[in-house]
Amino acid sequence: MARLILVSNRLPVTVSVEGGSVRVQRSMGGLATGLAGPHERTGGVWIGWPGSFDRATPDERAAIDRGLREQRLLPVELSKEELAGFYEGFSNGVLWPLFHYMLGHIGHGSNGWGAYEAVNRRYAEVAAAAWRPGDRIWVHDYQLMLVPGFLRELLPDARIGFFLHIPFPSSAVFRGLPHAAEILRGLLGADLIGFHTASYLRHFAGAALRLLGVSAEVDRLPWSGREVHLGDFPMGVDARRFEQLARSDDVIAHARELRVRNDEQLLLGIDRLDYTKGLSRRFLAFERMLELHPELREHVRLIQVAVPSRGGVGAYQDLRVRTDALVGRINGAYGTPNWTPVSYLQRSFDAAGVTALCCAADVALVTPVRDGMNLVAKEFVAARADENGVLVLSELAGAAQELGDALIVNPYDVEQTAEVYHQALRMPRDERRRRMRAMRERVFTHDVHHWAESFLARLEAAAPDVAVEDAPFDPARIERRARARIAEAGELVLLLDYDGTLREFELEPERAVPDAELLDLLARLSRRPRTSVHLVSGRTRTDLERWFGELGAGLHAEHGLWSRFPGETWGRARFAVPRHFERIARLLQQYAERVRGAFLERKDVTLAFHWRGATLEFGTRQVNELRQHLSEVCAGLGVQLLPGDRLLEVRPVGLSKALAADRIAKRAPEDAFFVALGDDRTDEDVFAALPERALGVRVGKGPTRATLRLNDVQEARSFLRRLLNLDPGDSGASGAP
Predict the structure, then answer these.
(1) How many CA atoms lie within 13 A of 135 on its CB side?
(2) What CATH number does the domain containing 401 carry?
(3) DSSP assignment of 646-675, as one string?
(4) What count of other Cβ atoms lies within 10 Å of the Cβ of residue 86?
(5) What is the pLDDT of residue 349?
(6) Looking at the domain assignment, is residue 123 inside a domain?
(7) What is the 3-state secondary structure (H, E, C) of 364-398?
(8) Distances in Å between the alpha carbon of 332 and those of 326, 328, 339, 523?
(9) From the CB of residue 426, how many other CB atoms can be counted at a distance below 10 Å?
(10) How far apart are CA 121 and CA 127, in angstroms?
(11) Using N-to-C axis directions, what is the helix angle for 448-461 and 30-41, rounded to 10°?
């Protein structure tokens, strides 16, 4: 069985040294729980920082190392200076606030990029040293976003996954990140990049498009001759464990103790003390509820757990002071000798303590101003075995994409949030149960184990469609292998692209008319015994009919929308004009007017934005902007964007040259041999649709499914001339292409 090598910022253990006794104890966090199974099952290795042990004696340090080895944990040692630059400086001083849209919290001065880069390289080197052929590597979170790229350099053939546990910001925000392009290149070293939500995936794709000019197609994008897969995998919790704890006698007793008075309802918040959690706005909304509904005073209490976090960072020290002051103000203004409105607990709780709090509460408040997922929301739902309780959830938390039966709020709208708190406290019992039952079904079917297994299954399936990126052009080899297969075949079927394959591109497409040499070549191929020729192009049927109508060849226009077989009339596939076609056309025209040398070509159901006449630098920048704009405008309209060579097409989903290839294959004899030539992404659809007895030939550079590669149009024509001269009766050398 292939081992799993896990790489995270910290190891999933707590190391304690007391009186010479060393304990290496497994953590109970979500990541540690979800990955414990795959780690054990595969006999894998976990790599990360174990913590600082500066005061440990040599004997104690040796004991720590033994404890880590016994659990197959490999430590990455970091100095205080490296921690200051890598962790506090760039990871938490730059990446964390920017990815959470908290730009005002980004630190000034040296941001620690050099330390971040050096530490990421060290993690990659430790992982590469541990790797054995067949192992899978799974890297985690924002602290290690350069690791996949470094690993790809060290282990070109390794299978590498990466998961981001925080939001990925919009491309407009991400572009403000120092070294943004380097971060993207590091991530693209992975075979699979996972996010909590589809919106984070789209943001990443938009950033790759704007900064690197790489266009994603639904769930993958091409990079360095590979396909990088993208996926959204909402992380869950160990739901059954929380349910079991909720049914235990100790937790039930603890929850009963927390409810001091029978006439008091409890609101609950459990968060790290972090500026992304929206604690001040939560307190303000609670205060506003007490103002608007005085009848609730002395009958409702907010228990807020704030786990201390990053106490050495100035922004967190300021947050703590402000939060303490706000809690003091509310308790001073509304508290009585018998009632304290806010119970503010600055400490951490174990799983049993968290479960008891969840079971005691009437309402859970999960109202961050930005959060990648927020597992507290799911822990609350999992703990409510009684199917009771109400969840108030911020629309800015990733969990809101799944838990639609929560009461969803905008935490920035304090007035509305206060009213939702009141609504939650007054919700009828039947509605509470209905909502909670629906959320529990989701939380239990998509728990943390489902998350881990789903990601690993997708990583396993993300084997690259091995493309011949740099296959040398060898005319003798092509001729020798093709000769045998063609001689055996009942018919040779040629599927030929036009622009970029048989004819060089022109600045203006109407000038790329076929020359006499090409027309003669195609005519001779069409007359060749046991040979059928088909031109499969993005061109309009008018162009193909005008240029090749007399050849006796099959003509297939607009990527398979129209087909005309020899001796027949044109037939059309059932594709309607896309919704908002004119709206999309107007947008393309606006960009065409903005980019000198660009123009819009309208076809029956497709639109083509040509920019071959534009300057490369300015044109690339504008087209990347256009692609990002179109990806947002066209969402849900049933169209797809298809980039080409200085070309961007908008076409209906499902319309591709594969349709023409399928029609041609259905009419060919069973023993036919197919040869397809093409130069861009549209022709990859043809290569993918070819029958088993076929040879795909890519003309030019770029990743491809084709078996062989030709360098340019002239080599493509030479190859076809050699096919023309093959003697069908001469079997030549054998071998499959």
Answers:
(1) 22
(2) 3.40.50.2000
(3) TEEEEEETT-SHHHHHHHHHHHS-TT-EEE
(4) 28
(5) 92
(6) yes
(7) EEECCCCECCCHHHHHHHHHCCCCCCEEEEECCEH
(8) 10, 6, 11, 93
(9) 11
(10) 10
(11) 50
Find residue 18's DSSP bridge partners.
21
Q: Is residue 68 part of a domain?
A: no
140 beta partners: 163
In the block, tokens 């990743």 appear at 703
83, 76 Cβ separation under 8 angstroms: no
Count of domains for the chain: 4
How many CA atoms does the CB half-sphere of 244 hold within 13 Å?
5
Among residues 611, 634, 652, which one ends one of the domains? 652
SS3 (DSSP) at 228: strand
Predicted confidence (pLDDT) per residue in 242-301, tens digit = 999 999 999 999 999 998 788 899 999 999 999 999 999 999 999 999 999 999 999 999
| Residue 451 within a domain | no
Q: Which pLDDT band, with edges at 50, 70 and 90, does 362 fall under?
A: very high
Name the token pair of 160.
Answer: 């590498």
| 419 contact partners, CB below 8 Å, separation of at least 6 | 289, 292
Asked, for residue 730, whether it belongs to a domain, the answer is no
* C-alpha torsion angle, residues 47, 51, 52, 58 (rounded to 10): -60
Asked if 544 and 557 sit in the same domain, the reply is yes
**Does one domain contain both 570 and 587?**
no
Residues 662 and 648 in one domain: no
Both tokens of 438, joined, read 């629906």
* Selection from 136, 169, 132, 166 nearest residue 41 by Cα: 136
Q: Is 502 exposed, middle or buried (0-12, 13-18, 19+ CB in 10 A)?
A: buried
- Shared domain for 314 and 382, answered yes or no, is yes
* β-strand partners of 220: 229
Query: Is the domain of 142 the same as that of 222?
Result: yes
* Residue 251 to residues 62, 243, 256, 358, 432, Cα–Cα distance (Å): 38, 11, 9, 10, 22
Tell me the HSE value of 78 on the side-chain side, using a 13 A CA sphere.
27
What amino acid positions are annotated as catalytic residues?
497
Residues ≥6 apart with Cβ < 8 Å to 241 = 33, 351
293, 337: one domain? yes
pLDDT digits (tens, 9 = 90+) for 44-71: 999 999 888 777 788 888 888 888 898 9
One domain for residues 184 and 111:
yes
Strands (E) in 566-629, as ranges, are: 571-572, 599-602, 607-610
CB atoms inside a 10 Å sphere around CB 294: 9
The H-or-E segment that residue 628 falls in is: helix 616-633
626 and 650 in contact (C-beta within 8 Å)? Answer: no
**Residue 489 belongs to domain spanning:** 475-575+655-725
Q: What is the pLDDT of residue 733?
A: 33
**Quick check: pTM over 0.90?**
no
Q: What type of residue is 88? A: E
379-to-13, 130, 140, 374, 488 alpha-carbon distances in Å: 21, 35, 22, 9, 65
pLDDT surpasses 50 at 734: no
Contact 363, 265 (CB under 8 A): yes
Residue 641, helix vs strand vs coil:
strand
**Spatial contact of 681 and 691, defined as CB atoms under 8 Å apart:** no
Report helix, strand or coil for 413. coil
DSSP string, 141-190: SGGGTTHHHHHHHH-TT-EEEEE--SPPPPHHHHTTSTTHHHHHHHHTTS
CA distances to 2, 273, 571 from 12, rounded to whole Å, are: 21, 21, 63
Which of 216, 232, 248 finishes a domain? Answer: 232
Neighbours of 702 (CB within 10 A): 17
- 659 CB contacts (<8 Å, ≥6 apart)? 559, 560, 561, 573
In this structure, the answer to whether residues 284 and 209 fall within a common structural domain is no
